[in-house]
């Protein structure tokens, strides 16, 4: 479940799991706009007002408002594949 105005975790996962080569131009543009809107919503919503599932989703995707790297980016950094 997602907070009001935020992209659900299942929608995020579905967009990430479908290969770009199988997406139409409309899907690419939609994913981009949804991602930017969700990121803006994450930044605007105080951490204390987020549901637990939204906090977890933000931590995994990097959509948090506390300037921390996502868990995926931290894993890449740990194995030397990150850009930091």
From TrEMBL:
Q: Identify the domain of life.
A: Eukaryota
Which intervals carry biased composition (Polar residues)? Answer: 1-10, 40-72
Under the heading InterPro entries, the entry gives: HSP9_HSP12
Biased composition range(s): Basic and acidic residues: 13-37
In this chain, the stretch annotated as Disordered covers: 1-84
> What name does this protein carry?
Uncharacterized protein
